[in-house]
Structures are given as C-alpha cells and as structure tokens.
Amino acid sequence: MVVLNWNGADFLRRFLPGVVEHADGARVVVADNASTDDSAALLARDFPTVELLLLERNFGFCEGYNHALARVDSPYYVLLNSDVAVTAGWLRPLRALLESRPRIAAVQPKILAHADPTRFEYAGGGGGYLDRLAYPFCRGRLFDTTEVDAGQYDDARPVAWASGACCLVRASAWRELGGFEPAFFAHMEEIDFCWRLQNAGHEVWYHGGSAVHHVGGGTLAKTNPRKTYLNFRNGLALLYRNAAPGELVGPLAQRLMLDWVAGLRFLAGGQLAEARAVARAHWHFFQKRAYWRARRAAAGPHLRVAQRPGAWAGSVVWAYFARGKRRFAELGIR
C-alpha cells in the first residue's frame, strides 16, 4: 500500500492512523515527493511501522508513483491518496475480486465525499466511465453534480477507469504497461492507464462492497488554473493516444471545439487565468504532438468504444448541458 505524499503532513496526521489500522496485513509505504513540510519527521516520530521512501525531488503524481512502485516488491499495489479515510475491511473485497479473476488488473472501491459521506465524491464515485469524446464521468457523478448514495451502486462490475485516489492494481500489469504516463504529470493519468490496460486485454473493475471517504482537491483546488491546464491538455492527449483509428479524427475535432467553448465561457465570466490555461493546454499539446504520435504508435491495438466496458457512444456534455441529465441512470447506460 503506497501513499504518495507532497507537503501533506496534515493529511497524514488525520488519515494515516486509519490506513495503518485497516491495512489487513499489507505493507504501508509513504513515498515522499521531496516535501518541504514536516512530513518525514512526523512519520519517523509517530508512525514507526510505516515505511518511508524519500524521493530526491518532486516528480509529480505520475513519476512519483512510477519511481516509488519500482522500489516496492509486491504482487499487488494499492495506490492511495493521502486525503483518503479508509473504512474497516475495505481492502478485503478488492483483493478477493482481483484474485478471483486473473484478467482484472485494477479495481476501485466506492468513493464517497469525506465532507458528506452520504454523497459520492467527484474523483471516482461508483466507477469511472468515458464518453465517445473521452470526457470522464462516474456512476454517482456527472460533471459537478453528485448523487446521494442509496445503495444504487453496491454492485461489482467492469468500468472504463478506476480512480487514482484509491485503487488496487496488479503489479504485473503495472510493469507491463510501464506505469503512469510521465508526460501527464498529474490529472487523468489513471484514466489513460486504465484505457491502456483495456487496449492490452486487461479488465478494470469497480467493487461497491468496499468504501472509502475522499477529501478531494488536497493538492490543487477545483478552480485552480494549473488544474484547468492539466485537465484540458491531458484530456486531448488521452484521446489522441488511446482512441481507435476510426474514432479519433472526428472526436478530436469536436473535443477541440468544445474546449474553446469552455475557454470562451471562462472569458465571459471574467476567469481570465482559466481561459489562458485552456489556450496554453492546446498550444502545449500540439507542440508535443510528435511525442504523442510516437506513444500512440508504440501502444499496439486500440479498441473501439463498443469493445471497451464503461465506454459510452453518447456525449455526456450534450446529455448534461443540453438535455439536463443530472444522474447516471438518466443516460440509459446498462
């Protein structure tokens, strides 16, 4: 179990005791991304059973995990954000599911909001989905609208992506794919990883018999321009790298157009930094297009939407903003 930490001493104080208590025999490792707060001293003083990996600099989320997991010898990896509160017995259902089906490479629990555990949390909810333009959404969350947890997603099923906030990953599959894409730095890296897993013949699952509570926005606030930049840049790279050949050109053009609509909305609302972030995201994506072309070419077969569990041939943007759909069930996905 690896918690990637960067200046998260406050979160470690709050949530690491529960992680240790409910580790169910798993090793607990904190990989520190060159924090400048008292994280290392706190771990040495208050958590003697927790292993500390000191990374030489802040590699970001993607490379931080890549470096950390290269040093951990285990058949499974638990990726766990420092702002996640786990619950008693949460790990056992995930591990049992992974062990029961050899093709499963990643599985996430139900992720609820720490501030209000009756509601699903933004980053993962009841399992991750993708529409045909590679916009991510979840059972229990469409854009900023979250649902109350009434047991409607207590099942176990294959999905498009498992949340990087909390998921169990088969180590052999992680090594096969080379872990997270380093150029993403942070945001959508787990979606890219899971899409690549599916393209390589693996399965990604959700298990509603396990639940954790996620604070969310622990490193960057939801309206931070840096986060806007990463989400828009990585969203284009996600689609370009992974989409099937016949499902790339049209969706990419539509995605670019919708991004500019979002940028104009930011501009009209006086959010100049956010609008500039969208423009920079596009500029930097096209600057690095040769890199993404090479990554795409090296990836092997690309599955079509109809071949990928959790992929939807519709448009969540149209459903949400034009048709007023606010709940996953209203999309008609089976």
Summarize the structure in short.
Pfam families: Glycos_transf_2 (PF00535). By secondary structure, the chain is of the alpha/beta class. The protein has 2 domains: 2-214, Spore Coat Polysaccharide Biosynthesis Protein SpsA, Chain A (Alpha-Beta Complex), CATH 3.90.550.10; 225-302.
Secondary structure blueprint with pairings:
Blueprint: E1 2-5, H1 9-21, E2 29-32, H2 39-46, E3 51-54, H3 60-69, E4 76-81, E5 84-86, H4 91-100, E6 104-113, E7 128-130, E8 136-138, E9 141-142, E10 145-146, E11 156-158, E12 166-170, H5 171-177, H6 189-199, E13 203-214, H7 225-242, H8 249-268, H9 272-287, H10 289-297, H11 316-322
Parallel strand pairs: 1-2, 1-4, 2-3, 6-13
Antiparallel strand pairs: 4-12, 5-13, 6-12, 7-8, 9-10, 11-13
Helix pairs in contact: 1-2, 6-7, 7-8, 7-9, 7-10, 8-9
Would you write up a description of this structure?
With 334 residues, the chain is α/β, with parallel strands linked by helices. It folds into two domains: 2-214, Spore Coat Polysaccharide Biosynthesis Protein SpsA, Chain A (Alpha-Beta Complex); 225-302. 39% of the residues lie in helices and 18% in strands. The protein has helices at residues 9-21, 39-46, 60-69, 91-100, 171-177, 189-199, 225-242, 249-268, 272-287, 289-297, 316-322; strands spanning 2-5, 29-32, 51-54, 76-81, 84-86, 104-113, 128-130, 136-138, 141-142, 145-146, 156-158, 166-170, 203-214. Strands 1, 2, 3, 4, 5, 6, 11, 12 and 13 form a nine-stranded mixed β-sheet that branches. The protein has a two-stranded antiparallel sheet with strand order 7-8. A two-stranded antiparallel sheet has the order 9-10. The longest helix has 20 residues, at 249-268. The radius of gyration is 19 Å and the shape is globular.
